[in-house]
């Protein structure tokens, strides 16, 4: 830490500060992003800088008798428990649980088969789905890692769901837990083509095929034969002691889990951040996975290079990750070679660290804590024996380090349009062919993400996003949103001042009605929701009630004593339009009107459907467009309040005030300027996105 250069240190402490200030300040943390880019530049600029080691790490000489073993939580993201993959996963998880009662397991995912698998193990195996997933249900690695970092156990472990752990895992972790320095270890997983052992009923003993228990030593012989691992493309375990110190300084990009390269990225970040002592425990943590030659999926999901060569440009998720790698400079050569890490070895029953040259750098009990072995003449036979053991171990292991292979920047691809509108519609629409549509430009990406996170929390999956510009499009792809770039969208608008009343705003809103019309014509009902509409609960079931030939829209009227359908009080930022002939014909009129109007589309909606001056009004909350006979239903303002109604945004507890009214949504309009809008929403707590870490806020975030 002492060697940290000033800007990094400064940014680091600002980071701590920002997280402590609480939610309302999250949007302010643009500063942090500036720091991060500074940091990234530094990294890139220091390609050849020598790798620093922590200057001290020694073992606490605590009283041996009151030592309690640390609690260990293993985090993993299985696919569904079914077929041969399911069997391998089940064996792996059982092998973890059998190691020690101190081991607990958290499985990330939302498939019901996870729950039914976990149920058999009681509280030792929990299934959590409160991390970020892409719309195709691929979990995000950065979100998984953040969850593991927030763990309340003493040690967190990230492991592939098919990796079998053997007993030396726990003894190694218990041992390194005593290091008086925060640490982070990696251990390569060995790939075997067969593993002829099974766990006994209790999950504690390994049995041979004849049903007899096999001793640990014998298992180790078996492991020796497979004493090869591939640091470049193979799987690995990552483990660390959980304390206040973060794993790394930067922000982990939103990598999709199982699409390669995220492990290496994280390890690289941890190493370069220099907060922790990073070492390679591949020799002391025996772990394997069975490679099924029939199962191509295995190799595809573990290896970057093979994946992107084999899959070409077909997999947009892969493309997204490549794009990320490029954006964040992943493929630059500052990647640390794993062979540079200190190695944790065990010789003669003693743990010891050796460096790249195989010098013993530290061994706990035999030598006093500060004396390095380097340069000493080997005297005793015991010392010679240990040196022999070390050389033996290391030369026996066939390590392939991917550093030398390098990566070819020319192979990187840029994002292409993965899904057109029609494909996306068919992917996301619900059983009634209804979709929720949001339209967003770049200055509203934080708002967009908060809105998306809110919908995800409400388990609403039938939404899609139209990106108004390339930045929003790429950002949304990387965040796993169902997004499309539309030819109707104006392409080169600067959105920084694109708020109500501006020319830009008018252009954008006109895009919205044209898009809605197009989707209706394809055959889907559309609930258009601006991203500044906060959703308390799912309004779709309620909106379905109105039936065909009715367009249900929010009223912008705030005066409680007057009707909701007065002139120009139709809010075109939240309405439900059905895909029927009447609605389509009426919306066509709106779009036509808007094209010839100098105003935004909002007055076009009202003037076309309710008549200028409200000549088509029916009662206090409806209009009927005579040409098409479309009914406009203004939504109950208690349930769908606009931003000026009852001063809800000025309430001390907005959430509570809205709950009392029974709100479904609350529009964050009637406020001028993007910043004040953001401020109002973040300040009220109706905010669900962490801008700095680029993930949805979860209950485990709020703990801090
Ligand atoms: C593990 O963590 C708990 C709470 O954070 C702490 O009380 C306990 O002492 C830790 N155990 C060990 C062995 O350090
Ligand atoms: C489980 O696998 C079988 C074939 O191995 C397949 O027919 C079945 O649909 C799968 N079940 C689920 C829930 O995917
Ligand atoms: C689809 O419509 C039917 C009938 O209106 C309703 O009962 C059902 O809940 C709707 N489904 C969804 C997902 O909204
Ligand atoms: C960009 O916008 C300006 C006006 O806003 C317009 O005249 C120009 O044609 C646009 N360029 C492109 C490439 O769309
Ligand atoms: C609401 O409307 C009533 C009747 O038109 C009017 O007297 C009153 O001043 C209005 N209140 C507000 C706050 O505008
Ligand atoms: C228009 O719709 C209303 C109900 O929405 C219906 O009563 C009326 O008969 C319709 N008129 C025509 C001309 O279709």
From TrEMBL:
Coiled coil: none annotated. Keywords: Membrane, Transmembrane, Transmembrane helix. Residues 460-680 form the Nucleotide-diphospho-sugar transferase domain. The keyword Lipid biosynthesis does not apply. InterPro entries: Nucl-diP-sugar_transferase, RAY1-like. It comes from the Eukaryota. One of its GO terms (molecular function) is glycosyltransferase activity. The chain crosses the membrane at residues 21-40. It holds the Pfam family Nucleotid_trans. This is Nucleotide-diphospho-sugar transferase domain-containing protein.
